[in-house]
Write a structure and sequence with these properties.
144 residues; mainly alpha; two-stranded antiparallel sheet; 6 helices; 3% strand; elongated
Length: 144
Amino acid sequence: MSASLSKPASHSNGTDMQTILTPRAFFRSLIIWTLVAFFIVGSVGNIFPPPAVRADYDRWGYPGWFHYITGIMELTTAILIARESTRRIGAMLGGTVMGAAVVTLGINAELLHAAAPTAVLLVLSLCLLLDAKAQEARWEGKVF
């Protein structure tokens, strides 16, 4: 092994640090990137909706252009969640979109379909919790 591969990276304050991927950090990354992928796929499905999605929005009583708003909000959520500095805002926006979906489906008595956005709300909450724990660990100088 070369010397450069075995030497720890240097931190901005001059101390040595190593990047360690713990199981919690891996799980956190997996959740984050799963949410990003979910919201990207959802945005594409709403910005370029198939006839079934358009029919859903019509059945729920939304205007013909409303799926574009949903798609843009989902794409924005994905972008915001991908960046650590904006993740909290992205999770709140995604929670708003998913909360609105749960309410819409509940009002229209499509309770079985409300399971997916409810699950996403739970995963968004878990993402925020894990981010808070990772931030706390950094403040304390610990590995998350």
